[in-house]
Design a protein that fits this description.
Elements: E1 19-21, E2 26-27, H1 28-46, E3 51-55, E4 66-68, E5 80-83, E6 92-95, H2 99-107, E7 110-115, E8 128-135, H3 141-157, E9 163-166, E10 172-177, H4 184-201, E11 206-207, E12 219-222, E13 249-250, H5 269-275
Parallel strand pairs: 11-12
Antiparallel strand pairs: 1-2, 3-4, 3-7, 5-6, 8-10, 8-12, 9-10, 9-13
Length: 292
């Protein structure tokens, strides 16, 4: 899978043939190879950011699942600890600084990477807004695409750029890059107001609160990803689900041809990288403006 210009790592993989997705035949080595192939695109979305990690030591069928925000015994030194400046107890969070750090996550059976929407160089000013479109079970995929286009239009009306990716789970993520200026509360309030306006304008389609009793036939506009310490699956991160899906950045014009939220997997990513070698989010951070 890895092109000739892929990075190499000094981190050794023990048991590289261990199956992380047994039904799909995806091994630890296969996951490392995938990340090598997308590293040049993925790096800005995971490097020097506080991370929450989903670890499954025996793969996706493992009974052991750890949602890890702090160090664990025997953690590879390429996974760094960093103090949260707002934590009075001095509890340290996790980050990676390079490709060795990412391979160390693979070695540690991290199958999902969930960064904060900020960097550790600028803790209190987020550099993105993530709107997670989470459909109820009976919502058509075409309705999720329509919702994403609605979010895009509303963000652009406010002078923000909008980018889209599959979640690898049930829906889509619409993400707006920010020049770090506004604080967490301002960014979360903005996201909340956007969700509320969509719900008010089309209550038959959208919800701004995660009320399970009302979810049928609706799309929950999850704005809570934008609070301090909250996370969303990283661009290009795998998901610990059957099929080995990936949270895949897209061009808006290709969205209508995407079959569903888990359309991109470790099996078909190589073909995608061949046919679309350009990163759809290549100008993501260049498009950032402050949230006014």
């Amino acid at each position: 899978m890895s092109p000739s210009n892929s990075p190499r790592s000094d981190v050794s993989l023990t048991h590289p043939d261990r199956l992380y997705w047994p039904d799909e035949g995806v091994t630890k080595q296969g996951l490392a190879d995938y990340y090598a192939a997308v590293w040049r695109f993925m790096a800005p979305h995971v490097v020097n950011r506080p991370l929450a990690l989903l670890r499954l030591p025996d793969g996706i069928k493992s009974h052991q699942r750890f949602f890890q925000k702090h160090a664990w015994k025997g953690m590879n030194p390429h996974i760094e600890e960093i103090a949260d400046p707002q934590d009075a107890d001095g509890e340290k969070l996790l980050r990676i600084g390079d490709f060795d750090g990412l391979v160390a996550l693979v070695q540690s059976a991290v199958l999902e990477i969930h960064p904060w929407g900020t960097t550790t160089g600028n803790w209190e000013q987020p550099d993105m807004i993530t709107m997670d479109l989470d459909p109820g079970e009976d919502v058509a995929w075409s309705a999720v695409i329509s919702a994403a286009l609605d979010v895009k239009a509303r963000l652009e009306t406010r002078g923000l750029a909008a980018f889209v990716k599959t979640s690898g789970g049930k829906g889509l993520h619409v993400v707006a890059p920010l020049a770090p200026k506004a604080g967490w509360s301002e960014v979360k309030d903005f996201a909340h107001s956007l969700a509320e306006s969509m719900s008010a304008d089309a209550p038959e389609k959208y919800l701004a609160t995660a009320t399970k009793a009302k979810r049928g036939g609706h799309i929950y506009i999850d704005y809570l990803r934008n609070g301090r310490g909250n996370t969303a699956a990283a661009a290009y991160s795998t998901r610990a689900r059957p099929g080995a899906p990936v949270s895949m950045p897209l061009d808006w014009e290709e969205l209508s041809g995407v079959s569903g939220p888990a359309a991109f997997t470790l099996a078909n990513v190589p073909q995608r990288l061949e046919t679309r070698p350009k990163d759809p989010w290549g100008d993501f951070f260049e498009a950032a403006v402050p949230l006014e």
